[in-house]
Design a protein that fits this description.
With 253 residues, the protein is α/β, with parallel strands linked by helices. The chain has 7 helices and 7 strands, in the order H-H-E-H-E-H-E-E-H-E-H-H-E-E. It has helices at 3-29, 44-59, 76-85, 96-109, 147-157, 180-193, 201-210; strands at 66-70, 88-93, 116-119, 132-138, 158-171, 217-220, 246-252. A 7-stranded mixed beta sheet has the order 3-2-1-4-5-7-6.
């Protein structure tokens, strides 16, 4: 069996997994399925909103802009950014259950006239070239079987000269493949988040460039975060960063 076929089978199983977990994730996590580095005194939800607003501001979104949310989950960030910017946002997700729930929540929030959710694979998006004024992804492209191919597809549907912004997790150069504790932490994250791998942050940057993007700005926001991003998962308050640096990266291209 070819490597590509194995990756596709794994990607399909991941989509089925998220169909099953859609409601459970919402009950535990709310409408936004992502982490957030936080300030002292800031709740998880407040931190999530701040990150979502930051991406909207970096993209310079304005009323009437056609925007794509790649891997939108049930649309929590989509609704938050739409209410902030008055942009028209299309969310793309390959989970039937999450799309159905997202459309229901769009109606409740009153953004269903300007925002839409489409069930599709972000590796093969059903949009013409140069369809969107801006594109963003929040902890979504880490699930791609091949990030270069994913970024190339994003580049295709984005209008020339416009921006793509992402908020992703990856491992830094401090990760030691020979360190058993490092490998254990990485494996826990891969299993918990159902990832194909926890890729190095440099892998994302290189893939973006190869896909045709110019990287304008990138930052590991985990470094300066007073409240660790992983705290909601860390019942023992054991700092993963004591043994293995996991970056939370802003990418603007």
């Amino acid at each position: 069996m070819s490597k590509a076929h194995i990756e596709n089978d794994s990607y399909s199983m991941e989509n089925e997994h998220y169909d099953e977990l859609a409601r459970n994730i919402e009950d535990l996590w709310g409408e936004s399925f992502h982490f957030a580095a936080r300030w002292n005194g800031e709740s998880l939800r407040e931190g999530m909103k701040r990150h979502e607003h930051f991406i909207a501001l970096q993209l310079g979104l304005k009323p009437g802009d056609k925007v794509l949310d790649v891997g939108c989950g049930i649309g929590g960030p989509l609704r938050e950014i739409a209410r902030l910017s008055y942009a028209s946002i299309t969310g793309l997700n390959n989970s039937e259950a999450q799309i159905a729930r997202g459309k229901e929540l769009n109606r409740i929030a009153g953004v269903d006239k300007t925002c839409n959710l489409v069930k599709a694979d972000f590796m093969k998006m059903p949009f013409p070239d140069s369809s969107f004024d801006a594109v963003y992804a929040i902890e979504a492209t880490c699930h791609a079987p091949n990030v270069y191919e994913c970024f190339k597809e994003i580049f295709r549907v984005l209008k020339p000269g416009q921006r793509f912004a992402a908020f992703e997790c990856g491992r830094t150069d401090s990760f030691d493949t020979n360190n058993q504790e490092h490998r254990k932490i990485k494996e826990e994250i891969v299993i918990c988040a159902d990832l194909p791998d926890l890729r190095p942050t440099g892998h994302y940057l290189e893939a973006l460039k190869q896909a045709g993007f110019e990287v304008i700005w990138e930052k590991d926001i985990a470094i300066d975060s007073p409240v660790p991003w992983y705290l909601p998962l860390d019942n023992n308050h054991k700092s993963w960063s004591d043994s293995c640096r996991i970056a939370m990266e802003y990418l603007l291209v």
